[in-house]
Amino acid sequence: MRIAGIDSGKQRDSFAFVGIEIKNDDIYVLGVKTWIERKYIEVENLIANIHDTQPFDYYVVEVNNTGEHVYEELKYRHKIPNVLPVFTTASVKDQLKIAIGKSMPKNQMVLYMSRMFQNNRIKFPSKTNKHIDELKRQISNFAEHITEAGNASYYAEGTEHDDTVMALMLAIFIGRHYIKKNEGFQTELKVESRKFNGDESDILGSGVPMGMEIMGRSEYTP
């Protein structure tokens, strides 16, 4: 199963395309392509050329912002039938939307990808290039940030890019449905955060010393 994730360029990001293949219950990164300061119509034509020469089974496009235009162009102008529009958000309460691939819970997917990396089940080509190296670099910069309200979010620091990470995440979001050996990953994954301080009743034992404050805590299920 070959799946491509597409993260369209925003104000500070490049346009990213990441192709993966699900094989032997593992995820293989086939290739990465990025475009910076290119017109959308040019990039859409290039993606259509990829489809004509080395087609993927699915193309997953984030449609939160400018991606809606990319989705419509690929599907209706270039007549690519297997383009999937996906909304991304920090978390999704409606599990049906996750199951049918309409909404991607970013926090849950970060946890899923972390587990797959830890178990060496996301594999990169032995032969690298600048685009694959850029994906690896962006993965290393992709970090958790806790807001003052105690909520977790994930993105690259400052002016760093994270578009290739998002493209990879989009592809894996659909690709995980074709992995049989998920090691429990098919169970609902949840990331919850809350702010604690020493003034609260500590009946269950939060581990926060009296008078001290912890800005966030994450609970992972399972």
Helices and strands in order:
Elements: E1 2-7, E2 15-23, E3 26-35, H1 40-53, E4 58-62, H2 67-77, E5 83-89, H3 95-99, E6 103-105, H4 106-118, E7 122-123, H5 130-141, E8 142-146, E9 152-156, H6 163-175, E10 190-192, E11 196-197, E12 213-214, E13 219-221
Parallel strand pairs: 1-4, 3-7, 4-5, 5-6
Antiparallel strand pairs: 1-2, 2-3, 8-9, 10-13, 11-12
- Total number of helical segments? 6
How large a portion of the residues is in β-strands, by DSSP E? Answer: 25-35%
| Low-pLDDT residue intervals, each spanning 5 or more residues | 184-194
What is the CATH top level name? Alpha Beta
The CATH architecture comes to 2-Layer Sandwich
Number of domains: 1
Radius of gyration: 19 Å
> Mean of the pLDDT scores?
78
Number of strands: 13
The shape is globular
Query: According to CATH, what is the topology?
Result: Nucleotidyltransferase, domain 5
Describe what this molecule looks like in 3D.
- The protein is 31% helix and 28% strand.
- The longest helix has 14 residues, at 40-53.
- It is of the alpha/beta class.
- Strand 4, helix 2 (67-77) and strand 5 (83-89) form a beta-alpha-beta unit.
- A seven-stranded mixed beta sheet has the order 6-5-4-1-2-3-7, with helices on both faces. It has a two-stranded antiparallel sheet with strand order 8-9.
- It is built from six helices and 13 strands.
- The protein has one domain: Nucleotidyltransferase, domain 5 (2-Layer Sandwich).
- The protein has helices at residues 40-53, 67-77, 95-99, 106-118, 130-141, 163-175; strands at residues 2-7, 15-23, 26-35, 58-62, 83-89, 103-105, 122-123, 142-146, 152-156, 190-192, 196-197, 213-214, 219-221.
- 29% of the residues are buried.
